[in-house]
Prior knowledge:
By secondary structure, the protein is of the alpha/beta class. The protein has six domains: 3-233, D-amino Acid Aminotransferase, Chain A, domain 1 (2-Layer Sandwich); 248-419, Rossmann fold (3-Layer(aba) Sandwich), CATH 3.40.50.261; 479-606, 3-Layer(aba) Sandwich (Rossmann fold), CATH 3.40.50.720; 611-802, 3-Layer(aba) Sandwich (Rossmann fold), CATH 3.40.50.261; 827-866, no CATH class; 869-1066. Strands 1, 8, 9, 10, 11, 12 and 13 form a seven-stranded antiparallel sheet that branches. A seven-stranded mixed sheet has the order 22-23-21-20-24-25-26, sandwiched between helices. A six-stranded mixed sheet has the order 28-27-30-29-31-32, sandwiched between helices. Helix 16 links the parallel strand 20 and strand 21 (513-517). The N and C termini lie far apart (96 Å). Residues 431-471 and 746-752 have low confidence and may be disordered. In the C-terminal section; belongs to the succinate/malate CoA ligase alpha subunit family. In the N-terminal section; belongs to the succinate/malate CoA ligase beta subunit family. Keywords: Acetylation, ATP-binding, Cytoplasm, Isopeptide bond, Lipid biosynthesis, Lipid metabolism, Magnesium, Metal-binding, Nucleotide-binding, Phosphoprotein, Transferase, Ubl conjugation. Residues 244-420 form the ATP-citrate synthase citrate-binding domain.
Amino acid sequence: MSAKAIREATGKDLINRKLAQGTRAAKCRFVSIDESTNWSHLVSENPWLSSERLVVKPDQLIKRRGKLGLIKVNADLAQCQQWVAERLNKDQQIGKATGKLKTFIIEPFVPHKPEEEAYVCIYSHRTADTILFHHEGGVDIGDVDAKALKLDVPVDSDIPDESTITSRLLTHVANDKKPVIAKFIQSLYKLYVDLYFTYLEINPLVVTDDSIYILDLAAKLDTTADFICRPDWGEIDYPPPFGRDAYPEEAYIADLDAKSGASLKLTILNPSGRIWTMVAGGGASVIYSDTICDLGGASELANYGEYSGAPSEQQTYEYAKTILGLMTKEKHPDGKVLIVGGGIANFTNVAATFKGIVKAAQQFQPKLVEHDIKIFVRRAGPNYQEGLRIIREVGKRLQIPVHVFGPETHMTAICAMALGKKPIPDPEAQEFSTANFLLPSGQDVGPSAPSSAATSPCTPTKQPRVQKSDSVDSSFKPLFSSKTKSIIWGMQTRAVQSMLDFDFVCRRTEPSVAALVYPFTGDHKQKFYWGHKEVLIPSYKNMKDAMAKHPDADVMITFASLRSAYDSAIETLQFPQIKTIAIIAEGIPENMTRKLILKANEKKVTIIGPATVGGVKPGCFKIGNTGGMMDNILHSKLYRPGSVAYVSRSGGMSNELNNIVSKASNGVFEGVAIGGDRYPGTTFMDHIMRYQNDPDAKLIILLGEVGGVEEYEVCEALKSKRITKPLVAWCIGTCASMFNSEVQFGHAGSIAHSNLETAVAKNEALKAAGAYVPDSFDNLGDLIHSVYEQLVRDGTIVPEPEMPPPTVPMDYSWARELGLIRKPASFMTSICDERGQELLYAGMPVTEVLKQNVGIGGVVSLLWFQRCLPPIYCKFLEMSLMLTADHGPAVSGAHNTIVCARAGKDLVSSLVSGLLTIGDRFGGALDGAARMFSEAYDAGLHPQEFVNNTRKKGKLIMGIGHRVKSINNPDMRVKLIKEYVLENFPTKPLVEYALEVEKITTTKKPNLILNVDGIIACAFVDMMRNSGSFTREEAQEYIEIGAINSLFVLGRSIGFIGHYMDQRRLKQGLYRHPWDDISYVLPEQYN
């Protein structure tokens, strides 16, 4: 949502910090009180509390506190403490809401005369900000809208000067106070704009001879502007509406939402309720709540919420886990139901999200059984068949009653089933649409010809006819056609491919996407599919280049983020060729949206969005992901035009409307989702009048919602006969009036600020104006079908024979996702998996790797050997790495690294040059030593026999001998590893055998000691053979593939990197070997 109410203390703090200097406004002094307050500490920090008269009141978004007796004035500190103590955590009834008083504010009492009180309020609407001022204020002000003087400040205009404020608002104010108040209102309005307030009311505003005092304050901020205003706002605490406690689970989901590109919302209405919902989509979530309340379940509805915008499996798991945790806190005598619902998704992978739900259900299985919880599921969209399958199977496996339905079932039918109002159908009898793009012939061909007598209970009582002479505008030009070309802002390859597939199935002659604009890469061409063929679509770094090279493109679809969508749209408006802009992003600050609407209207550009999936004109053009996957496009017959045009706020519900309309009529003619934000770029009326003027649109559908007053414009147009075509209308959010406290639904604009804005009032007004209004959303399809049949009988609509669309190949990746194909993998891996929510090392999550503190040795053992070895062996691996990390700059590997670094090469090149020297002569003796010692030991050779045999063969014993170290000058590296192995390894036969060999070789020469290669190699073999972690065959295989030498490679890489960094740090120049250190031995010159 966007506009959120803040506490009075928060509003006064913002005014204290950000109101411009130069007004006579006194600094607001206040303290906030709750159950954790330490009064003595509070008084020591605010001495005025004990020396001045005070005012105390709750600070919990309660309106008309004075009228309700919830304010104590002219009291001392002790009286304030007593007043708070009598009310803290006590139930308070306010209207229909009952809640506990938990937060209070104490301020100095300001003595003043009644005539010094005034009222000021600023609020925003679509075209302007309105400043209200009344020269009288206080609790008895009455109908301020009728009394107050008003000054409208148009969007994107300058802040009004003091003379304008004085002449328009201060006509009843004493002359000596006019300059003071005008200056204050001007500064207050500037603060309102700069800090993205959407509402700010001060009543009373006390204006004395020398100061202005802000006594009571109510305010709302546009939370979508957080990325702009965070430095000025600081951390804002947004309290819940009075009567509804703030739950930690709500805060957890809100935090999850803030960190996600998806939309995750949760409002707990009644934690003891038996009906819980987990609904995908902002619009769908409201409709499910409506239906539950219509069925009499309002008192048992436990929560409102939504998960949408393609949340990941992990995010859905976290959301589902939170819901199930709340459900299983306390039992209900009748058991509980969980309704997992949603419309037909546009782009969310249903199976992926359902895997998250299944994971949570498995975790809570015992509690679900204990609490007698039944689950009802209805969902459709990409990969829904797999999603429904896995959730159906998990119900059987976990012995939880799970009833599963797809798009063949009306969206909200499961609500009546869950509440016992409707029988649960046999799952075996359910019909499913195909997921295979290549089988369009399996689709039905629309409704049959209507019968001679209508039998539907929703049969309309009137039959409006479309008169060709006066019902349409002859100059009408459609928004989209089969020739429409678009430019896409953003690298949204999936959405582009979806548009191209739609074009192909609609039999367009050329793609609707002319080009892409993506500022973060250079100009290039991007590959896509056009049916079976591959085509190249240009992508430009600059919008100007795209426009110049594609002058026939007249639609811009911007997938820019909420932070950059405004800028990209404003840039688009510079190009006259663009007639329509679709803005997909949700959460653009309202001030920016209003400015954009103003500029678009000036240039006569149509804006669809923000916060929309877009729109579709079957047979012609679709925006982005509208219509979902190809199976849904085929199922809803969007590949050819029908006769029914609709406009909706909800993008998710537009797909559901496509489904409903395709079953109830000959299909969709055009559909637009204007977006769920408070100020959509175009209104319902903008599109309804287009449909009215389009001769091919025969029936219009309006899906409105709670909040705003745009639907009343439609009522007036119906009454004045500007709309003469049949209009079927329904406003969602009828449940809002049944809740005891205010609920903000999924869309930013879906909240009623007055009775006029409620869905119930709108539906009644639409019906009275002549629209067809069903009894509930459940009956919407029946009513559409009745009106459609009537139009067919009238001859207004003549159904055409159904023609099968061309086949569109399914993308390989999606076909594989659906399990329709298989192919051998190009690579195999058994050590690491990065595909899930968490990286796995040989099956162990990285969080467990750190939690169990396995160390580097443990990580090596997981990635090299597919298992975590016991700690003593992990420690041995770490010791080996540490002791082989470096051996000075003179050895060949370090020397190469240094020479390469001094030649100016990069780290990787220098490291590789050093590693390439590792072999039999340098560092590669580990494998050789392991092989020689283990073969001798396995053959049963006495150490003396082993030494004698190698001497006879003229071979050196790998792992024996050192250039400098000897029996008298031992290698400390060898000593450390030998002592560790002898002390900690349970069995170490090969190390003991090698030490016996050393006793023999050192009698010949004292430097023929067991060197570091030898001790590590033999200890490694002992670890492999005797740790209990490997079979004999596995141990031998690792020795043969060179696993032991890898210890030296890994360890010595540390040293090589150190030498590289050392040379760069010392700024050493190019190395050239001195000529006097080279023996030049050339052949004698030929004479």
